[in-house]
Specification:
- The strands form four sheets. A seven-stranded mixed sheet has the order 2-8-7-6-5-3-4, with helices on both faces. The chain has a four-stranded antiparallel sheet with strand order 11-12-15-14.
- The chain is globular.
- The protein is of the alpha/beta class.
- Helix 2 runs antiparallel to helix 9, helix 3 runs parallel beside helix 9 and helix 10 runs parallel beside helix 12.
- The termini are far apart.
- The longest helix is centred in the last third of the chain and has 28 residues.
Length: about 400
């Protein structure tokens, strides 16, 4: 018997575990200090009333023999996939229900999708990057190469025709940087993938924050994308489902290689390893797309967007370079006075009692940068902003 030795290539110390450890140590040593957390990208508003209503209805369905549900469809109930299909249609993307797969979240699918790819594929990820993209591929023994995201390109690297890649990760709007590709930039990536016979794994978890007209809600709004991209999305940030767990993956029937359908491979994988999302959760998720559900959810999103504006305004007043804050709940800022990421983390914690996320935890290009999140309460955000201003003026 042998364990998978590729796990040794993954760091033992997860970024957010290190953040939590440092905060816990400081809090224990300074019990009289109130620490404000703008670090982890977890939502803080409760689920929308319309969602709660349908979650309750789902619970009641499980109590009545005629509406009780046992095992559900591996790809999700038709009532939810119908709603998702309608949502895509609202921004000009036409799908078939069979191209939509309901899951317990984008993070799971972004890791699990690798089951349908060969282990000898080369993976291209931006740096800095959401750690899951890198770690799941290292665990599988794949070669990972990096596209440099930096201040000069606005943390939006473009394809290099000299680079050979088989799997390409794109997150737009991006976590951690908050930067978002426009339609023309995404078209360049689609053309590159088609030329290289590669597949783009497109993380659209933050598409609900997009407000600018030149940006797209889905990569499938770009011509040719259905032949080379798989899209992952989530109810976590859109509707506060971080603790409820529901998301979806879209794989077009047009995505084939050597006569093999990626859609069929994924269905086979899911039917083998996954028993589906609970009926009750899917009932709540479907309520997200009702007229009243959309109204309530947009109000919640506007709450977070306003928090982002408060943080962005603070950076503007201090003259600190940043991205994000417009189409994203994240503000990615350059650490002042040439500080390193962890140096600024400790400085902010010890002198203002504000917690953010060190950019170095997202890759080497994140060194010297820092992420703040708009997912806190407005009260906490306002107080944190005032503390940062007082410290850095």
């Amino acid at each position: 018997m042998k364990f998978n030795q590729n796990f040794n290539d993954v760091s033992d110390n997860y970024l957010f575990a290190e953040v939590a450890e440092r905060v816990a140590k400081y809090t224990a040593e300074n019990p009289d200090k109130t620490v404000l957390k703008l670090g982890i990208g977890d939502v803080t508003l409760p689920l929308a009333p319309e969602v709660i209503k349908d979650l309750h209805a789902g619970v009641h369905d499980m109590f009545v023999k005629s509406t009780f549900k046992g095992y559900g469809p591996y790809e999700g109930y038709a009532f939810l996939r119908d709603k998702i299909r309608g949502y895509y249609s609202s921004f000009g993307v036409e799908l078939d229900n069979s191209e939509i797969f309901v899951s317990d979240g984008a993070k799971s699918d972004l890791g699990n999708i690798l089951d349908i790819f060969s282990a000898d594929n080369t993976v291209l990820v931006p740096d800095p990057v959401y750690p899951v993209y890198v770690d799941t591929n290292l665990m599988a023994g794949r070669k990972v190469i990096y596209a440099d995201a930096n201040e000069e390109n606005g943390f939006l690297p473009m394809p290099d025709p000299e680079v050979e890649a088989d799997i390409i990760y794109i997150c737009s709007p991006n976590n951690p940087t908050g930067a978002a590709y426009d339609r023309e930039q995404l078209k360049a990536w689609v053309d590159y993938a088609l030329e290289k016979d590669a597949v783009i794994l497109y993380d659209a978890a933050y598409e609900c924050f997009i407000s600018e007209d030149n940006l797209v809600r889905s990569i499938f709004q770009v011509a040719g994308a259905k032949k080379c991209a798989i899209e992952f999305c989530s109810f976590s940030k859109m509707a506060g489902f971080t603790g409820t767990r529901c998301g979806y993956t879209v794989i077009s029937h047009e995505l084939e290689r050597d006569g093999v359908s990626a859609n069929k491979l994924w269905l086979r994988r899911q039917s083998t390893k996954f028993n589906g999302v609970p009926y009750i959760v899917q009932k709540g998720a479907a309520a997200v797309f009702s007229e009243e559900g959309q109204r309530q959810i947009k109000a919640n999103l506007e709450y977070y967007k306003n928090n982002a504006r408060l943080i962005a305004q603070c950076m503007d007043e201090l003259g600190i370079w940043y991205t994000g804050g417009k189409n994203s709940p994240y503000i990615w800022l350059k650490c002042p006075n040439g500080m390193g990421s962890w140096e600024f983390f400790d400085y902010l914690l010890h002198n203002a009692q504000v917690v953010g996320t060190p950019g170095a935890g997202f890759g080497k290009n994140g060194e010297g940068y820092f992420r703040l999140t708009a997912f806190g309460s407005t009260e906490v955000t306002k107080e944190a902003v005032e503390r940062i201003k007082s410290l850095l003026k």
